[in-house]
Write a structure and sequence with these properties.
Strand order of the largest sheet: 1-3-4-6-7-8-9-12-13-16-17-18-19-20
Distance between the termini: 43 Å
Strand content: over 45%
Radius of gyration: 23 Å
Length: 443
């Protein structure tokens, strides 16, 4: 991938103010909380200022709630906590109490690259992905809001390593604010929809070989930010007490990034072309973050056991190329507008999850995911060395009166990927761990 960064703190101020106002309301609903309002507010604030970056097929972040992750995110039909804002907004209509649900996940991907001559390089990363949801039912209408990171990428290779001329740093950070409304049309028919406002920051860095002009490597950087709008909607049908069916759709979001491109440590032989050892100019690019369709069926096998199966399609074919437009080009040195083909393809994920109530307050969860990858061989690169993957998850939930605590762990195994292309030939081996905690409170 070609762009990334951290969400602007300024973007958070308005949302934090709104949420804090809710916690400080003097009405009966919030005054029934037997826990510290300030404590909950500052836990939420901490979650937001932590960076939210992940590594999955493409660069979509699947870690949006610990109950869902414990079931391998086979949750588009169950959707019975405030994270329904993300998984299926219709699920809000089935919830009776005002509630919050917040937490974060630690994500630890590891990738090894081996070139055709046997040399290798390995990187280990650690990121945090936060989430916050609020649900407020009123009669037969439910309102909700989610603040989370739906996409993210973080990959940092050595500036002296094997990949340095294709990628050293690549990051994408997103922050999505998703107000939502849901309604129970009939006792068996739930609908919901929401609006997405997403900001993203992006950074791309790599080294430039200057040996032909007698210089050491230069550093090329691109960074920028932007915002875009989208929507999500969902339906849940409950024909009887055993079966539930659901569909959820999240639209694509097109973001135009405005920022700068720079080149540092320019070789003396070509410095006259750039006017010095460093050069900077305004730059623009855009990314269409893909739409997602989720279909699911849930089955209550017994009073203690519930199963869910989801099919998820992500429309990555929207990512056809990365086009970078420079305000000031230096054509004699090759520092000009670029268009990198990506040619990504749509992908499917199959998710299966189970929840078993082991005791009155304890639930055990597990799940499995298979998903193919969107990146063709001819555009695979070290910034996102994707491959087909198998994920296994485990989770546990504790429910005491109004307090809910969910914890989950997922292991991601990526099939080894060997490619020969014009970017960088070699073999990639990747695996990843994610673990996190979500805390909910019903008012």
């Amino acid at each position: 991938m070609a762009v990334a960064g951290f969400p602007s703190i300024l973007v958070l101020i308005g949302q934090i103010g709104f949420i804090r106002d809710q916690f400080e309301r003097p009405d009966k609903v919030f005054n029934t909380m037997p826990v510290s309002k300030n404590m909950l507010f500052y836990v939420f604030l901490l979650a937001l200022v932590l960076p939210g970056t992940a590594y999955t097929s493409g660069f979509k972040v699947d870690q949006q709630g610990a109950k869902a992750l414990g079931m391998a995110n086979a949750y588009a039909v169950t959707a019975d906590d405030p994270s329904a804002v993300y998984f299926n907004p219709a699920g809000l209509a089935g919830q009776r109490d005002p509630a919050i649900y917040l937490g974060a996940f630690a994500l630890a991907p590891s990738t090894e690259f081996r070139d055709p001559f046997g040399a290798d390089e390995e990187i280990d990363e650690l990121f945090l992905a936060p989430h916050f949801y609020l649900a407020y039912p009123y009669r037969n209408i439910s309102f909700g809001i989610g603040i989370y990171a739906p996409f993210g990428l973080g990959m940092n290779w050595s500036e002296t390593g094997l990949t340095r001329y294709q990628a050293t740093e690549g990051e994408i950070d997103t922050l999505n604010v998703n107000p939502t409304i849901a309604m129970r049309i009939r006792h068996w028919f739930l609908v919901g929809a929401g609006v997405d406002y997403m900001r993203s920051t992006a950074t791309l860095e790599k080294m430039v070989d200057q040996s032909l002009v007698g210089g050491t490597d230069a550093r090329s950087s691109l960074e920028g930010d932007g915002y875009g709008w989208g929507y999500n909607a969902g339906v849940i049908i409950i024909p009887d007490e055993r079966f539930r069916f659901g569909v959820s759709y999240r639209s694509a979001i097109d973001i135009d990034f405005n920022g700068s491109a720079s080149l540092d440590n320019i070789a003396p032989a070509v410095q006259p072309l750039f006017g010095g050892a460093s050069f900077r100019t305004n730059a623009r690019t855009s990314i269409e973050f893909p739409a997602t369709l989720m279909l699911g069926v849930a089955y209550k096998a017994s009073e203690k056991t519930a199963l869910e199966l989801n099919f998820e399609k992500t429309y990555w074919s929207s990512y056809k190329s990365l086009d970078i437009d420079l305000e000031n080009e230096v054509a004699p040195a090759g520092f000009t507008d670029t268009s990198e083909p990506k040619d990504w393809r749509d992908i499917w994920a199959v998710r299966a999850g189970v929840e078993y109530r082991a005791a009155e307050r304890i639930s055990l969860r597990g799940g499995y995911v298979f998903q193919n990858n969107p990146v063709p061989d001819h555009t695979l690169e070290p910034r996102l060395p994707d491959s087909d993957q198998h994920n296994i998850s485990l989770g546990i939930g504790y429910n005491a009166a109004n307090l809910v605590i969910d914890a989950a762990y997922m292991f991601a195994y990526f099939e080894d990927r060997k490619v020969e292309n014009s970017i960088l030939s070699g073999e990639y081996s990747t695996s990843g761990h994610s673990a996190g905690l979500s805390i909910g409170y019903k008012f």
